[in-house]
Write a structure and sequence with these properties.
The complex is a heterodimer of chains A (114) and B (111). Chain A is built from no helices and eleven strands. In chain A, 0% of the residues lie in helices and 52% in strands. Chain A has strands at 4-7, 10-13, 19-25, 32-38, 45-51, 57-58, 67-73, 76-81, 90-97, 104-105, 109-113. In chain A, strands 2, 4, 5, 6, 9, 10 and 11 form a seven-stranded mixed β-sheet that branches. In chain A, strands 1-3-8-7 form a four-stranded antiparallel β-sheet, with no helix packed on it. Chain B has 111 residues and is mostly beta strands. In chain B, 0% of the residues lie in helices and 54% in strands. Chain B is built from no helices and eleven strands. Chain B has strands at residues 4-5, 11-14, 19-25, 32-38, 45-50, 54-58, 61-66, 71-76, 85-92, 99-101, 105-110. The chains are: A mainly beta (114), B mainly beta (111).
């Protein structure tokens, strides 16, 4: 149980384009989903928290117009990186919480912006 | 600023030994603590969580929590080369479901 998937697992795009990443909870309904970013040799940094049907809450310093989050159902959240630039290249990881305190992580999406 | 601190390592232990990983946190109101294992290029995998003071054992893993000292640790018994990874300590912030992660400790188990 508690399986979270992400799609795509990796993506390469040109600077200025937008990229959408999907996060799905496969065998449970996710009360809350979280989006993290991890740069090489650094820890996970929380970008935003999203609850189904409501607007995401962004962490300080994260541009909500650049990182659009949609949590349309209890099993799906999407992160769209708009007008991506090389500095947005990173490992993006989502996690999902059912009812308890534990977060279960998706496999991550490696974004490379050329 | 709420913080979670870990020694970055690397911590090297011989195969079969006990690996001891430590984590301190600043938010005295924190109630939930988690250990994740992360292999290079992969996402974190939950190993254990602990909510109460004392020890919690699961197979070769033991989590220890001391809220008075704001300290949580992970012991790995009979360490195997496959345990070589970065171990992340995460603390759920009081009043929210958000985690704050430490920077992780890189563990190397030498065959």
């Amino acid at each position: 149980g508690a399986v979270v998937s992400q799609h795509p697992s990796w993506v390469i795009c040109k600077s200025g384009t937008s990229v959408k990443i999907e996060c799905r909870s496969l065998d449970f309904q996710a009360t809350t989903m979280f989006w993290y970013r991890q740069f090489p040799k650094q820890s996970l940094m929380l970008m935003a928290t999203s609850n189904e049907g409501s607007k995401a809450t962004y962490e300080q310093g994260v541009e909500k117009d650049k990182f659009l989050i949609n949590h349309a159902s209890l099993t799906l959240s999407t992160l769209t990186v708009t007008s991506a630039h090389p500095e947005d290249s990173s490992f993006y990881i989502c996690s999902a919480r059912e009812r308890g305190n534990e977060q279960f992580f998706g496999p991550g999406t490696r974004l490379t912006v050329l | 600023q709420k913080e979670v601190e870990q020694n970055s390592g690397p911590l090297s232990v011989p195969e079969g030994a006990i690996a001891s990983l430590n984590c301190t946190y600043s938010d005295r109101g924190s109630q939930s603590f988690f250990w994740y294992r992360q292999y290079s290029g992969k996402s974190p995998e939950l190993i254990m969580f602990i909510y109460s003071n004392g020890d919690k054992e699961d197979g070769r893993f033991t989590a220890q929590l001391n809220k008075a000292s704001q300290y949580v640790s992970l012991l790995i018994r009979d360490s195997q080369p496959s345990d070589s990874a970065t171990y992340l300590c995460a603390v759920k912030t009081s009043g929210t479901y958000k985690y704050i992660f430490g920077t992780g400790t890189r563990l190397k188990v030498l065959a």
